[in-house]
Amino acid sequence: MAIPVNSKVVKSVELYRWRATAWRLDMWPFAGMYGAWLVMSAPQLDPTDSGIILGCIVLSHILTWLFTAWSVDFRCFMHAEKVRDVHLADVCKVVPAKFSGSKEVVPLHQRKISPGEKLNGFRDGSQLLTSKQSGSPAPSATQAGEEIGFEFRKQQFIYSEEENKFFKLDYPNKEPFGTYSKLTGYGSETRAQVAMEKWGRNIFEFPQPTFGNLMKEHCMEPFFVFQVFCVGLWCLDDYWYYSVFTLLMLILFESTVVKSRLKTLQELRRVRVDSQTLMVHRGGKWMKLSGMDLLPGDVVSIGRPTGQGSEERTVPADMLLIAGSAIANEALLTGESTPQWKGSIVGREPGDRLSIRRDKNHVLFGGTKILQHTPDKTGSLKAPDGGCLAVVLRTGFETSQGKLMRTILFSTERVTANNWESGLFICFLVVFALIAAGYVLKKGLDDPNRSKYKLFLNCSLIITSVIPPELPMELSIAVNTSLIALAKKGIYCTEPFRIPFAGKVDVCCFDKTGTLTSDDMEFRGVVVLSESLELEADSSKFSNPTVQALASCHALVFVDNKLVGDPLEKAALKGVDWSYTADEKAIPRKGSAPPVQIMARHHFASHLKRMSVVTRIDENFFCFVKGAPETIQERLTEVYPGYVEAYKQFTRQGSRVIALAYKRLPEMTVGDARSLDREEVETGLSFAGFAVFACPLRHDSATVLKELKESSHDLVMITGDQALTACHVAAQVHIITRSALILTPHADESNEDTFNWISPDEKVKLPYKKEEVLDISNEYDLCVAGDGLGMLQRTHALEIVIPVTKVFARVAPDQKELILTTLKAVGRTALMCGDGTNDVGALKQAHVGVALLNAIPPVKAANASSSTNTEPGSATLAPSATTPSTGQVNKAKRSKSAIAGPSGIAGAVQSGASSSGAVTRPVKVGLPTGQQNPGKTSPTGQGGPGSKPLTPAELQKLKLKKMMDELNEEGDGRSAPTVKLGDASMAAPFTAKHSSVRPTTDIIRQGRSTLVTTLQMFKILGLNCLATAYVLSVMHLDGVKLGDMQATISGVFTAAFFLFISHARPLNTLSAQRPHPNIFSPYVILSLLGQFAIHITFLVTVVNGAKKYMPEECIEPDSEFTPNLVNTVSYMSNMMIQVATFAVNYIGHPFNQSIRENKPFYFALTSAAIFFTALLSDLFRSLNDWLRLVPLPQPYGRQVLGYAAAMVAGCYLWEHSLRWVFPPPSPTKPRQRRRAVSKPLESKKRD
């Protein structure tokens, strides 16, 4: 009986108890067989027959043992028995959720629960050991105070007796804020020890296998075992050269794969919790502890060390700030250099529960870096080192950094060559082999003089001959060729066998911000409704409240004398021509306006969609607020007519619109102003205008997406931006080509599942009905927002709506993942292109995930950038090691917040602007952890404080040189690069060092090329194996046999041809025609059968013709190989068939180079034709003697050449006729579903 698990990753578990070794099903049955053989067969049968029976038993035993290693279900069946009671079980079989990996058997562990831990709730306000969190009942203690659980992929699950269910090990991360405020840490070492037993140490531990262990694992794979078995059979049949040649190739190939895998695992092991020392409050006093000894519930002092040369401190675990504030660089988690302001929970309602997703502005996440901190000196508990006070929430693999590691390691099964299609194709070939082996067996048993050993060996060789042992190797050659080609374009792949999936892609999904659009933010102006709806770009005409709001209502701060901030806020400050100083004062550059002193900030919160500041201007206090227009609207004392229409008008144009508001405060003291409640500050406001910002498209986004659309791909946008903005950008890049409809909640909030389809201009409005979605999608392009996805999930309509939706807006990272898993569930092959680690789930779930990182700039661009003068006070970024090679330089990537507004402090803003005035996003690719320090770059030649001897140009060259050294570490690029934590590429199969989406077309072109190459390899291997089966069966009975050297030369020829066809380059343009996606299609099967029939006819004809010239010879089937005319003709015919198979089944245009354009393959074919002509003509007698070929009588030699030409022509005509009859999938056409719906829809439209 399966026990459910309360987890998104695990579906259920089944309980098992190990059998005693003697009673396992792979032990006692075979012991009985061996005993029976010893008693019955050995004494009574002759040694040969007895040995064959023993060999069959041993082979069955070995296969049974191997299947226990290959199949989890089979292992449980053979080695264990199912139990219902968790107390009787030793292990459990974990069944993961869909798209979450494969089954595993893991041991159950038991832990004694201390008396204090059994109590629910809090005893003295300092313990969080047994807190019962909302939505997650605390697992109960089982018999004798034991806790039973298991670990699966670095997550702990605990059994609940009452629920009869496994729950994730709970952490104290959902408690009321009042509980955290009162915490003072663990009261005693005993309590800390109990917590240590429950949660373990704060470390990333996963086993690092040795080369020998990994090699053993690879050698246990089914294909490798089978390959070695084939080699053994060939050795028994005296093919020593051929066997050794094949075995060496296998070992070399597997060793290369193991070495590459080992290097990747070693790189991942470098990610660890810093062994820094922190001050921790335990037992009523402060003590120094290593970061690896932190426990959930600890109260710690965290901050950046002070003093000359101090560096940012890495946060060792997820922590909640309870006193003080900090600025943290979360580039590791978000993929964006966007330092975030983190404030304490002071002021939050004590009864409100913590939600890490909603309250992330209070949480310091593990692995991020603290750039700056401000301690709170007013609390009762003070840190001795002047740090901020924080409560540890999660440790180890449960931290945000640990979750990212888990995603990388375990999220989806790795795509390998041993897929189900390969297995089915082999089963198809095995049918023919069994027929041939049955024929040989019947004929052999009819002849009493034949050796039973030789007969058994021959039948085994026939069956194994149709399973090409070189299949994984040949597929790897094709894939590795693509890897090298992509690496030359700056695209790296960590899961090489996903490349053929790129050729099957039929839907391409794109993130918007930073992917399709640039990171640059441009301030366009302000709309003040009291005057008109026109956009005013001249800042001198702005009202005082408008200017002051733009200049002061922001989250800009100074870090190491550098101004850091959101690019949007930087653009606004520059647009009004004000500057900002380190003492939190906004000052106009021109004119005599009074400065604005910031007294208090209420930072942006995604659930509030706004931020505010309390300021002092002269002796008066003002508050300024900005946020989403719909949010600010609710807080205005007066809403101007046209308010909604104004912001929607600019949003439809693709602009980001921020509403500005202000309020004059009554007279009060500075202390009162600083302590004002946020709700009081942000109500009763006066409107100050709409600030309008533009985020331009990348220069080639529209071109690339148009090419993808014209090459039979559906295009989808998935973004966190507002729906109207997303629809406007989607129309610019050809994602939307018809009128759009947006799924919008009904104004009546009584029913949360009532939605309407509304056009951006609100002229079309249709009620949402699940059964009409497909009809509406035939006439309109659909857009669904995050709240709409929630409704679709509740009403089980995801699989109906998502496949026909073009734009997804306002989606959270987990909703991006949901979209991709739904597309996969309905059978679509999806590509996802993004650039931030908030896309990590979607990138991992997509068949082809492409992470964009900024490219390495040329040295000239770096010098030009560093020499450009900047305005005093304007915030620009230091030269980065990763900027676009085109010379376009990107701004620090803004955070993709839930609204069109600031989400925190943006990338470290430093000196060194480009000539275009844009700024660079410092994505840290290839830099060691210790050097990823965005706040420590030296200033430019402006001579600011902290200048270092190195100029920016020299610093840039050093960074560039170091990066190139690391990227070139692999030599020729044959191995996948090792990527660093913090890049989106850590969870994406493909990593592109580009800022544009052009790599998606490169990957698809290479994928299509690899797909057609793989398809033709399957056909060629299949035809060769079928011909081999015929030679070993029917022709072997007639005495036809190949020499050892002949077999070796044949193998070398085959490997060389495979190498040449795998090096075919894809064409530069994507065709509208897609390749055949599957092996099992009428085209492939009919092609195989037809060509096989022509080959057999050719073989039979030439061999029968040869027999006429040697009627006096009597050939024994099991005799040793001796050169004769039949053997010679058979060998040469086989070689001709092999070459013809390569030539006929080669697939060139419209995907790859043609045969003539693929020069190596063309020359190889020409050389093969000359070679066979020379052999048949007996021009080089010594060569024929070395190959043990006898001279062919004339004119029979010329007849063989004529038959060969006819065979090639017949195969060519058959193959190309089938290509004409069964063309590949046609370009995507508008979906024709159900009925024409234009008239019914027209009747539903209303203004």
Helix vs. strand class: alpha+beta
CATH architect. name of the largest domain: Up-down Bundle
Specify the CATH homologous superfamily of the largest domain. Answer: Calcium-transporting ATPase, transmembrane domain
CATH topology call of the largest domain: Calcium-transporting ATPase, transmembrane domain
Give me the number of helical elements. Answer: 39
Strand content: 15-25%
Q: What's the total count of β strands?
A: 39
- Characterize the largest beta sheet: strand count, sense, and whether it forms a barrel: 11 strands, mixed
Radius of gyration: 36 Å
Helix content: 25-40%
Protein name: Cation-transporting ATPase
Organism: Marchantia polymorpha
Subcellular location: Endoplasmic reticulum membrane
Keywords: ATP-binding, Endoplasmic reticulum, Magnesium, Membrane, Metal-binding, Nucleotide-binding, Translocase, Transmembrane, Transmembrane helix, Transport
